Amino acid sequence: MNSAVPVTPEPFSTDEAQRVRAIWSDLDLPGIVDVHTHFMPRPVMDKVWAYFDSVGPLVGREWPITYRADEDVRVSTLRDFGVRAYSSLVYPHKPNMAEWLNGWAHDFAAGHDDCLHTATFYPEESAHTYVSRAIQAGTQVFKCHIQVGDFSPTDSLLDGVWSQIADSQVPVIIHCGSGPAPGTFTGPEPIRELLHRFPSLPLIVAHMGMPEYTAFLDLALEYPNVHLDTTMAFTDFAEEDAPFPADYLPRLADAGEKILFGSDFPNIPYGYTHALEALIRLDLGADWLRDVFYRNGSRLFGIG
């Protein structure tokens, strides 16, 4: 398979969809499982986009939203790409928000059978109760955003949440790395403390733990239920400021069954094709790519 990165096709174009489909077809896969995509209530998505529109001074460069479009167009685009399953990752930044987001995400998944039923939580007295309801309602994946929420994952208000998640084994995609900017509670040490208390937690560390790649990769190799998602990692955009250490590539190969493809669609400053090609150019082999693009996510989420 040619590992050269081609010129990125225009977003939303037939050419782009054909290129994405060619990548997974060449690997004899039935499509892609993308664990890290965002669908949110429109007022919330508008605020997220406004944040990225203004984030230039924070990250030192512009962050254009490549797939800024109406919700139905975004859904259709993922389907045109051959994405077999995706998520509607929502996350609160204040109390009394998570349960409302969970209701919206539940309805979204009910109307889109290729979307993983997604939920979220925040450290508050009601968290134990609404997380219990979400699990009983069929939630397949939780989203936890340590940086945006500005809370510690070891907050005692979350003890009942983590114990339920450990018991149910519903995976949690957790943004806990310090990229694109460090937060009060980001970094590997709070997660190491959390896993010490709840060693069976099914965590998916978003963005490969960027920029603390090595520490989070070590945690994934140490704890059987910890995974990593590739969201934005290895792309030109990420490599400019937070390059993955070349001497850790062999350990990346060893962790092949622990790594899931994630794109951050639609909030990425480049084309979807580039996220796939960035993994291809790591030159870790076709079987590694099959695991990352489809098989690991299919196994974890029971996708036929």
TrEMBL record:
Residue span(s) of domain Amidohydrolase-related: 33-303
Family annotation (InterPro entries): ACMSD, Amidohydro-rel, Metal_Hydrolase
Keyword presence, Chloroplast: no
Keywords: Lyase
Parts of the chain that traverse the membrane: none
Taxonomic superkingdom: Bacteria
Record has Lyase as a keyword: yes
One Pfam family it belongs to: Amidohydro_2
Record's protein name: Amidohydrolase-related domain-containing protein
Organism expressing this protein natively: Gordonia terrae NBRC 100016
Top-level taxonomy: Bacteria, Bacillati, Actinomycetota, Actinomycetes, Mycobacteriales
